[in-house]
Design a protein that fits this description.
It is a single chain. The protein is an all-alpha fold. The protein has one domain. The protein contains four helices and no strands.
Length: about 80
């Protein structure tokens, strides 16, 4: 029983190793047309920048701006507006 189990395990192990080697040695390459179309795609220009605050600030934001003005500190919200 143990002998036949060892043989079956060995055969399965050899098949697994063979499939792994076959997978990594395969010469799969994408078609040239696909490569060219991927490389020639128009690139989207990304628009960067800072999003300005909404016109109507929340009460807490107004308080922070007023407090910072009182002490002469600049805030991020002030810089954006």
């Amino acid at each position: 029983m143990t002998f036949s189990l060892g043989i079956i395990t060995g055969i399965l192990l050899m098949i697994a190793i063979f499939l792994i080697i076959l997978y990594f040695k395969s010469d799969f390459k994408p078609e040239e047309k696909k490569i060219k179309t991927i490389n020639n795609k128009p690139k989207k220009k990304l628009k960067g920048g800072i999003i300005p605050p909404p016109d109507e600030l929340r009460e807490a934001q107004k308080r922070i701006i007023n407090e910072n003005k009182k002490y002469g500190r600049a805030t991020r919200l002030e810089e954006l507006s």
